Amino acid sequence: MENHNHQELIQKLLNCVAACENCALACLHERDIQMMAQCISLDRDCADICAQAARLLQRDSVIAHQYLLLCEEICRLCADECSKHDQDHCQQCAEACRICADACHEHHEPITQR
Amino acid sequence: MENHNHQELIQKLLNCVAACENCALACLHERDIQMMAQCISLDRDCADICAQAARLLQRDSVIAHQYLLLCEEICRLCADECSKHDQDHCQQCAEACRICADACHEHHEPITQR
Amino acid sequence: MENHNHQELIQKLLNCVAACENCALACLHERDIQMMAQCISLDRDCADICAQAARLLQRDSVIAHQYLLLCEEICRLCADECSKHDQDHCQQCAEACRICADACHEHHEPITQR
Amino acid sequence: MENHNHQELIQKLLNCVAACENCALACLHERDIQMMAQCISLDRDCADICAQAARLLQRDSVIAHQYLLLCEEICRLCADECSKHDQDHCQQCAEACRICADACHEHHEPITQR
């Protein structure tokens, strides 16, 4: 089955979900949350979209590889924002997002434009 | 807030989710499910992706309009498959998917390619 | 089909999702986000759980009515927190959560304990 | 952080999601899908609910441990159905569901009834 070839990619997506959830949770406990507002928003979008991407790959969806193009984009946006902050949870999240973005980049397909 | 401008689009996305869930459920009760396997798969992907799109619009996500490009694509794929079947639930689902795809088409943005 | 009987409940669940997303978004733009941290967390959990409840009802899931028990609980927790804050988005969210909790209460079933 | 204590539980939830997605996909390709209709439905509910449970634990949600009660129930229902079928994907899914249900059982809290 197709999804057996994607174990590594799926694992990177799930690692990214975990890192984003951890980062959003930690951001909400920071003293200066204001500075973290954009980070919290992007963490959430990135976690939701990576989690959905993993599910689509697991069920061998016809849209899975096009979905990865979008997944790469949100991972890069989230990595860019997180890398601006010195906190460990942000730096770890930025790294997980970059690894995931690169993996998505290798496997994505262009989205059919009609 | 941005999301106030998108009430109509969000409603079409949620209508599409409901039509896809209804169609998948009805397909599982058809006598010849075999013929419906592809329909069930696409219904599920389409419902998941449209539901996520509505959430992204509601929270004014930076990725929302790029997400709509993908959402349009799965709606067209699901509409194409459903329109092959004569059952009411398939015909209604095809119609909801087409309406949703057209609405996504009006609001989507190209996905940044890096 | 079962889900036809649940249109009103499903609508209240979806209204609650929209109110929670709107509230979380607005909280992230408040000057004193710190005070809103718990609200943002509960909004998110409540939106996710109500959205899932709507999907389970739409697909006539065997677990749907047990799920409503949990859904009621998160709606009450979110309403309690939101009602502490004077902002319109919090007051509106508290109201949507209470309406949704009451609707879940009418339809839920006890969870089988084994 | 709380979620660090739950790595093993989260892994069992994610294994269950993967097994359910794999089983649903394989069921849709079986010659006698009719017999598999209930299995496909339960696989889907179980995957959705376990995935949500993992997210709630990762973000240290106040509702996470109550959610596990419901998660245990859908895992037991899915395990019961899958164990009726001889196919490898069903047997593997039943096993993953049982392991996950037992893990949920250890960590769940009763749902507050108001």
Question: Could you walk me through the main structural features you see in this protein, from its secondary elements to its overall organization?
Answer:
- 4 copies of one chain form a homotetramer.
- Chain A has 114 residues and is mainly α.
- In chain A, 73% of the residues lie in helices and 0% in strands.
- The first copy, chain A, has 4 helices and no strands.
- In chain A, helix 1 runs antiparallel to helix 4.
- The radius of gyration of chain A is 14 Å and the shape is elongated.
- The model of chain A has no long low-confidence stretch (mean pLDDT 93).
- Chains in contact: A-B, A-C, A-D, B-C, B-D, C-D.
- Chains A and B meet through helix 2 and helix 3 of A and helix 2 and helix 3 of B.
- Chains A, B, C, D: InterPro entries: Csp_YhjQ, YHJQ-like.
- Chains A, B, C, D: Pfam families: Csp (PF03860).
- Chains A, B, C, D: This is Four-helix bundle copper-binding protein.
- Chains A, B, C, D: It comes from Mucilaginibacter pocheonensis.
